[in-house]
UniProtKB/TrEMBL annotation:
Protein name as annotated: Glutathione S-transferase
InterPro entries, alphabetized: Glutathione-S-Trfase_C_sf, Glutathione_S-Trfase_N, Thioredoxin-like_sf
E.C. number(s) listed in UniProt: 2.5.1.18
Pfam family, one: GST_N_3
Domain GST N-terminal per the UniProt entry, residue ranges: 1-77
Organism of this sequence: Pseudoteredinibacter isoporae
Source taxonomy: Bacteria, Pseudomonadati, Pseudomonadota, Gammaproteobacteria, Cellvibrionales
Length: 190
């Protein structure tokens, strides 16, 4: 079994943390460099990481890879509420990716323009709900939703995307999660 990813990607890191106790090969690419793009093209027309290759199956998208592996490894069962939480985490993560891509394309993402306003609205709404869920104990077990949340929060800090001072429960959760397996080994700063 082979996971294709990159070190900074929070979508890849979540799977690496969730698979901390499993035996598999990890292939790291620079997806914006010419060699990495060529390698990625061999595995997915969507040109996004992560990609999982497991004998005859090639699986795209972290959520689908999680479902595929969870069915295979029978690690945990998520409630519909937890599935919704995953959707919220993905939504805010995707919004931050759009903001970064605007910035890298020399589009000022602090402007009052539709694409930036939509992302800011989603980020504000979603982080508030995640703060409430965290206060309510929804991330007390180190299951996939907690792992995804940790990867999002640490990536926000790493990329200096947002000031999380208004979300004390999320900050405390992030700090407490730093002792979990593979967190140090997958730190994008190292
Ligand atoms: N929904 C996808 C999102 C994956 C994603 O956006 N990955 C980024 C890296 S963090 C990527 O590959 N971006 C390349 C691109 O957008 O061209 C998932 O959960 O796997």
């Amino acid at each position: 079994m082979k996971l294709i990813g990159s070190k900074p990607s929070p979508y890849v890191r979540r799977l690496r943390l969730w698979l901390a106790a499993e035996d598999y090969d990890y292939v790291q690419l620079d997806i914006l460099g010419p060699e990495g793009r060529e390698a990625l093209r061999q595995h997915t027309p969507a040109m996004k990481i992560p990609v999982l290759i497991d004998s005859e199956h090639t699986v795209y998208d972290s959520r689908v890879i999680y479902e595929y592996l969870n069915q295979k490894l029978k690690k945990e069962r998520l409630s519909w509420e937890q599935q919704n939480t995953l959707t919220l985490i993905d939504a805010v993560n995707d919004s931050f990716v759009i903001m970064i891509m605007m910035d890298r394309s020399c589009i000022d993402n602090s402007q009052d323009i539709l694409i930036a306003n939509l992302q800011r609205d989603r980020i504000e709404q979603t982080l508030s709900i995640l703060e409430q869920k965290c206060q309510g104990g929804e991330f007390s077990q180190w299951q996939y939703p907690a792992i995804c949340l940790y990867c999002l929060l640490d990536w926000i800090e790493f990329r200096e995307l947002y000031e999380l001072g208004a979300y004390p429960a999320l900050q405390a959760f992030k700090q407490a999660s730093e002792a979990q397996p593979m967190v140090n080994d997958t730190d994008p700063r190292v």
